[in-house]
UniProtKB/TrEMBL annotation:
Keyword Transferase (UniProt): yes
Domain of life of the source: Bacteria
UniProt keyword terms in alphabetical order: Transferase
Record-given protein name: Rhodanese-related sulfurtransferase
Originating organism: Nonomuraea dietziae
Gene3D superfamilies membership: Rhodanese-like domain
GO molecular function annotation: transferase activity
Length: 107
C-alpha cells in the first residue's frame, strides 16, 4: 500500500501533526504544536485523532509514521507521512521544544 508523503518543509502551518514516537523521544524534542500518541497506543486512542481533517504523521526518521499513516488511511482517515521524520525537522531548523530543561534534540 502506497502512503502519501510530504517533506517537513511542506507541512502547512496549523496542520494537525501527530507524533508517534516513544515517550523518551518526545520528551527530548518535538514540534510545539504536535500531538503525542505513541505508535503502540494509536489503535486504542484513535478516537483522539480528528476524522475531519488531514493528519500529518511524524516519527524519528519516517518508518513508524509511514505504518501509522497507512493504518489511519486504511480505516478511512486522511493521513500523510512526514518524510525524514523529526531528524529532517531538526535539520530544517523548524521549531522544536523539549520537556527536559535542555535544548531540544531528536533522540
Amino acid at each position: 500500500m502506497s502512503v502519501p508523503e510530504i517533506e517537513v518543509t511542506d507541512v502547512p502551518a496549523g496542520a494537525y501533526l501527530l507524533d508517534v514516537r516513544e515517550q523518551d523521544e518526545w520528551v527530548a524534542g518535538h514540534a510545539p504544536e504536535a500531538v503525542h500518541i505513541p505508535l503502540a497506543e494509536l489503535q486504542a486512542r484513535v478516537e483522539e485523532v480528528p476524522a475531519d481533517q488531514q493528519v500529518y504523521v511524524v516519527c524519528r526518521v519516517g518508518g513508524r509514521s509511514a505504518h501509522a499513516a497507512a493504518w489511519l488511511n486504511h480505516i478511512g482517515r486522511d493521513a500523510v507521512n512526514v518524510g525524514g521524520g523529526m531528524q529532517s525537522w531538526e535539520m530544517a531548523r523548524k521549531p522544536m521544544v523539549s520537556e527536559t530543561g535542555q535544548p531540544p534534540f531528536v533522540a
